[in-house]
Amino acid sequence: MINQVDFKYAKAISDKIMDKKQELIVQKNNLSSNQPTNIESQLHIWREDIIEIYAKSINSDLDTSYQLLKEWGAEAVDTLVNFNLPLEIALDEVRDYRNLIGQIIKDEASGFNLTFDQFYNLISDFDAVVDRAVHWLSISYSRRFYTRINAAEATALELSIPVIKISNQIGVLPLIGDIDTQRAQELMDKALSKGSDLGLEYMVIDLSGVPIIDTMVADRIFKVVEALSLIGVKTILSGIRPEIAQTMTHLGINTSNITVTSSLHIALEQFLNMKIQMA
């Protein structure tokens, strides 16, 4: 990390920071707000680690310091995410120790009578290390946060389009809520994969819980119907309310080749009657 400052001065300043580690932790405890015991315990570990990294950075090259900070940032973010804590907690640790350790560097530099250029090089490199700590915390937290959100959204999307097998031949796919482009694609994928995997002959797509059927939604649904027919699965549309029927009529959708019922109950009754007749 040091360019022009003699190694012995850098080593002495680094050792001084390590000697004051527990004192620095106590100072930070006094600055921070009260946290639950389990979180305070984790913060104590963070503080020990970041102080050691800052101390080592005084007489190490920047690349080594950056690698240590990258590892520390990833571990800190894991804890934040696991405890559902905001990023600001870790950033506060970094910022507060910039000031506390920066003061030690200033005092020691003064005691060693370092020149202005020597002190400037020392504090500039230290600031670069702190800035990199903020960088890695922010990057790691953003990645983990969005990974978690995407996983939750994928799970919610998966659960929002269930295919329920109610007999050897029949499956029901109840839809609830709005259907956007992403969900429409999931509908296509799920209907085809489950229709094939479950060996279905019929699939009831129930639209009772879909509040709006517009041009896009209607087009997507009938593409699913067409795709299912190509793999040998006949589709029944249930839950067709009067306003939905009117929309389909206005859109010029031909339902002559599709069984349509006003409710899921009626659709299942038709299947039951069909089985009785075949028995």
Automatic annotation (TrEMBL):
One of the Pfam families matching this protein, by short name: STAS
UniProt cross-references to SUPFAM superfamilies, sorted A to Z: SpoIIaa-like
Matching PANTHER family: RSBT ANTAGONIST PROTEIN RSBS-RELATED (PTHR33745), RSBT CO-ANTAGONIST PROTEIN RSBRC (PTHR33745:SF3)
CDD domains named in the record: STAS_RsbR_RsbS_like
Keyword Repressor carried by entry: no
PROSITE patterns per UniProt: STAS
Chain ranges of the STAS domain: 160-271
Protein's UniProt name: RsbT co-antagonist protein RsbR
InterPro entries assigned to the protein according to its UniProt record, in alphabetical order: Bact_StressResp_Reg (IPR051932), STAS_dom (IPR002645), STAS_dom_sf (IPR036513)
Alphabetized UniProt keyword annotations: Phosphoprotein
Record's keyword annotation contains Zinc: no
